[in-house]
Amino acid sequence: VKMSILDRTDLCFPQFPNNSCKKPAFSLSETVSLHFLLSCISLLTTALNLIIIIAVSHFRQLHTPTNILLLSLAVSDFLVGLLAMPAEIMRRTSCWFLGDSLCFLYNYVSYIITSASVGVMVLISADRFVAICDPLHYPSRVTERRAKVCVCLCWLISALYNIILVKDELIQLGMHNSCYGECVIIVDSITGTIDTVLTFIVPVFVIVVLYMRVFVVAVSQARAMRSHVTAVTLQLSVAATTKKSELKAARTLGVLVIVFLLCFCPYFCVSVAGSDLLKRFSEFVAFLFFFNSTINPLIYALFYPWFRKAVKLIITLQILEPGSCETNIL
Fold first, then answer.
1. Tell me: the pLDDT tens digits for 109-126?
2. CA-based, 20 to 30 A from 37: which of 52, 137, 143, 284?
């Protein structure tokens, strides 16, 4: 009897001994330490991305097509910190106590965020491609309104695409859970292959091709600017300044894209490789993928002076002053 009682304490739902999952094998100290560390990362991710959302939304100078794309990326990163990370912490370090409905909602929202983030990265690459490779037509082709429409379509398509992907789970909630306290969604091999092609292989190929083209053109433009460094006319000076700012933006966003790919690729590579590898590295690649949402704002802080200035204005509540949206932040 004592042994059976001890065994039941290891179960997520002791009242259902035959159907309950076992609790993850973590000691109390390990669980507390892990929860504290991951909760701090989640809080940091949420706070940093919230600053970007407030800054780009509030300051009129930041209302540019490129920043609209960064705003969309910050929204997805914010949702990762606010919703996905806490739920993932619960799922990985303890039992799932929130039921099948919230399990489905968590997975569905996570899929939307992932797909939307990939879509926005493709849009950022396309934005830099037009800005560097066709600078004369960039202001007319890439407008703030078009950027907003593209972002909205990206999120809408992501939501519709993923509801088709998990429609079976929606009809029968928890159909793939082997025991109480588990939260998983499994798609069949054909659907999984199609999803991998559409949300991983094709976007990564497009991003790499666009940025390789941007890199080649940026190098040639940099050489051209150095060869014309002695030009002293105002027109050439303004043109050179514009080119430099676009090239700098391309480099910064290039870092953003490269870091995204470094965090994104292992997640899908492990998923494609098979179940054995997935079991061994699933926790590492999942948290690496989510940690990208923490890194992105740090990249902004490192490369964008306006981000550092916005942090100061937001923390000191100067954005609450009348007319603060017109502040010169660039």
1. 999 998 999 999 899 889
2. 52
